[in-house]
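Course assignment 3, question 2. Fill in each field.
Student: A.L.
Task: Predict the tertiary structure for the chain below.
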Amino acid sequence: MSVRVLAWAWEQDLEPLTKLILLALADHCDHEGLCFPKIKTVMSKTGLGLTTVHGRLRILVKKNLIKRNAHFLDKSGAQTSNLISLLIPPPISSRDRGAGVNGDTPPLSSRDTPPLSPADRVYIRKKPSIEPSIEPSIEKIFCQINELAGKKFNPKSKYQTEYLRARLKDGGTLEQCLLIVNDRWERWGSQDKMRIHFRPQTLFRVSHWETYLMEAQEAGSESESLGDPGDPLRNFLKRQEEKKNGKKNV
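Answer field:
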């Protein structure tokens, strides 16, 4: 793995899945941006399917970010591997940094310029590290998980919210996340061996997302969980309370 290659991959403006493929390739590259990864290796590293991996590789080729060269056996003609080259711009040498526009006059160094007065300084406000728009959703989802499992998962924890935050940024909705939480609890809540997996790091992992969501929708949990679209958590808890009261009446 090359730090320079990996840093270049992080800087590319791509869709999440395409960028994930590029990062997986960069993680295998040498300092020149060359690697020989198997498709199965990329699939295992990203958690994506065969069709998705091939499709995203074609996108990277079209964007001139990578180049693919297939290697074949001489006798049978069977393909053995792919040589993938990441098309990284060459690093700027110290000599080029010191040259001016025409290569003859070096730019002024910090020692050649006078210090700025406070009135001339431009202060740049740093962007907040937490996106306020998704925080209410994260808190509501964690509240529901804690309510069901009797746990104290922390919605302010970077580690515990990492996968959930990524799914929301990728376009996942509050309703979809609550739907998965409700469905997984109904499947795992009564099983000691499975209940230990009822945690944010498992529920919202990228390799589980599509499967869990599809199974929840097929099970018909969506119509039960959403109720009033304004507050799906309240409706789900109301349904749970009704079940408890029904058992008491019996």
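Instructor remarks: Residues 221-230 have pLDDT under 50 and may be disordered. The longest strand covers residues 79-86.
Grade: pending
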